[in-house]
Specification:
hydroxyacylglutathione hydrolase, 14 strands, alpha/beta, six-stranded mixed β-sheet, EC 3.1.2.6, about 260 residues, Metallo-beta-lactamase, Chain A, about 30% helix
């Protein structure tokens, strides 16, 4: 099973260590939040770091790239935007690569930023195990990123035409710990949804214990994420006063911005 270790950086940013399994040495990192000693991290975690994957160019997701490059001058840094510091391996939509004995497919999901990439990771030697998805600031648990460089149609495409159709067991790892706030908004939008109420209670309990709320799954997001439920939920449609997915997406984002 694909092994993911979640590391908290800053107040709510996630960086991830990804390996084929818990005992593997070969690994890659997702979203280097801070300047830090990555050689020390590799030694502490017993890693051979073979690549860095960056979701987008915002500093809280790539602030460590240039320092990493100085420490590991020959390790590739992947991304989808020329603004990503130290990136030397640009990726396009649906491009497949293999790193650390894992298969990675890049999904172009422009909106939060114009060059945002999500990464779909699977173990080619064990296709029965659930794949994992690193979504940066496109898909959060029960939410989505702000439309800084894009539009509602772009976010609808990203969430509901690209990510929503992935296998339901796919494990979702976003860029931030925003789950409780997002589920409170989801409960406001769809107050009769029992899945939202149950997950909000669980998420609050996790945070009270000092635990993370990642990963989610595509199955859970389809059941609880209002940005993925405009078409399915009459209650969401009533809240946003439309059953049009694009109009609904735009209204939900405006509501969330002011929630």
């Amino acid at each position: 099973m694909v092994y993911v270790k979640t590391l908290l950086r800053r107040a709510d940013n996630f960086m991830y260590i990804v390996k084929k399994n818990a005992g593997a040495r070969k690994a890659f990192l997702v979203d280097l939040v801070n300047e830090e000693n990555y050689q020390e991290l590799a030694e502490h975690e017993n890693l051979d770091i073979t690549a860095v994957l960056t979701t987008h160019h915002h500093y809280d997701h790539c602030g460590g790239n240039e320092g990493f490059r100085r420490q590991f001058p020959n390790v590739p840094i992947f991304g989808g935007d020329e603004r990503v510091p130290a990136m030397d391996h640009p990726l396009k939509h649906n491009q497949e690569i293999e790193i650390a004995d894992l298969k990675i497919r890049s999904f172009s999901t422009p909106c939060h930023t114009s060059g945002h990439i999500c990464y779909f990771v699977s173990d080619p030697s064990n296709e029965s195990e659930p794949p994992v998805l690193f979504t940066g600031d496109t898909l959060f648990i029960a939410g989505c990123g702000r439309f800084f460089e894009g539009t509602a149609p772009q976010m609808d495409t990203a969430l509901n035409k690209i990510l929503k159709v992935l296998p339901e067991e796919t494990l979702v790892y976003p860029g931030h710990e925003y789950t409780v706030a997002n589920l409170k908004f989801a409960a406001h939008v769809e107050p009769q949804n029992p899945d939202v109420a149950a997950k909000l209670k669980w998420a609050q309990e996790q945070r009270e214990k000092g635990l993370f709320t990642v990963p989610s799954t595509i199955f859970d997001e389809k059941a609880t994420n209002p940005f993925m439920r405009v078409v399915e939920s009459e209650e969401v449609q009533k809240t946003v006063e439309t059953n049009d997915p694009i109009e609904g997406m735009a209204k939900l984002r405006e509501m969330k911005n002011n929630f």
